[in-house]
Amino acid sequence: MEDVFLRAEKIAAQIEEKIGGGLPSVGLILGSGWGGASDLLSDAVMLPYASLCGMPRCGVSGHAGEVVVGRTGKAVAAVFCGRFHLYEGRSCGEVVLPVAVLHALGVDKVLLTNAAGGVNRAFSVGDMMILADHINMTGVNPLLGVKPRDKYPVFVDMSDVYDASLSDALRGSLLAEGLSVRAGVYMQLTGPTYETRAEVRAFRVLGADAVGMSTAVEAMYARYLGMRVAAVSCITNLAAGMGGKVCHEEVLEQTALREKKLSRAICSFAEKAVSL
Predict the structure, then answer these.
(1) E strands within the chain?
(2) Which of 82, 87, 108 is nearest to 97 (CA)?
(3) How far apart are CA 190 and CA 231, in angstroms?
(4) CA distances for 259 relative to 49, 113, 139, 151, 253, angstroms
(5) Tens of pLDDT along 142-199?
(6) Segment 11-59, tens digit of pLDDT
(7) Rounded (10°) CA dihedral 235, 241, 245, 246
(8) How many other C-beta atoms are found inside a 10 Å radius of the C-beta of residue 270?
(9) Residues belonging to the active site
(10) What three-state secondary structure class fits 169?
(11) What are 92-144's pLDDT values in tens digits?
């Protein structure tokens, strides 16, 4: 993990050179099916991950694998269309690299999005769940082995990972698009398999409202860097034992049905976030 700072700085320097000014103030890391937001940015510069030395490649459908920097209202946003996952065999350092690059670009506010399975019986497919908290069940921590630095102690308070003001702004943007919005606890697992029926019952007892394979470790690393974080899950399916089969194609299908609304909502959020 010790090389993440240096690697991020080198990638950020390439992005700065290619965009030629107008550094971003808000960062978006988009999960499966959320990539349409980048199409709404004006004066956009699109940089495939393959064009950035040191940047890994995305290997999952629904993740375009590009950085887009552009304007939405008065905000300049850097959008990572595609993330990296533990289930791909990635190290934690690679998983949190987009967060580290945003920080190296000077971004101090980040929105994380994902597609998740509903565990809470009151949830329905199509609900948006703003993360109020999370449970990290991956068995790894992005700060394992990281040596403390003056500005970045590793004993990070995680009692308030998700910023209340940013979450309120996010809620308003989602509601303005007519989306059903809830709040809840997200549990990150490693994947790539989906959960068993028994696991879902256990996770419900532990307090999870939704489960997925990303986001929590990224949020932890962002807090380590002193960034303010908001996060939202699109409930694309109900977890095992709650009806129907679970598959990645269904996940992409459900986000595609709502892509325009989701895209407008997170661009609206970015515009609000710059003044918060």
Answers:
(1) 26-30, 42-48, 66-72, 75-81, 109-118, 128-136, 181-188, 210-212, 228-238
(2) 82
(3) 18
(4) 22, 13, 32, 39, 10
(5) 999 998 888 899 999 999 999 999 999 999 999 999 999 999 999 999 999 989 999 9
(6) 999 999 999 878 999 999 998 767 678 888 999 999 999 999 999 987 6
(7) 40
(8) 30
(9) 32, 63, 85, 87-88, 115, 213-214, 237, 248
(10) helix
(11) 999 999 999 999 999 999 999 998 999 999 999 899 999 999 999 999 999 99
| Structure-block tokens of residue 255 | 């986000």
- Please report, as a single letter, which amino acid is at residue 85: H
Q: Exposed/middle/buried for 244, CB within 10 Å: 0-12, 13-18, 19+? A: exposed
SS3 of residue 150 by DSSP:
coil
In eight-state DSSP terms, residue 145 is: T
CB burial readout 155-181, b (16+ within 10 A) else e: eeeeeebbbeebbebbbebbeebebeb
Residues written for the chain: 276
Say which amino acid occupies 257.
L
Q: Return the structure tokens found at 275.
A: 């003044």
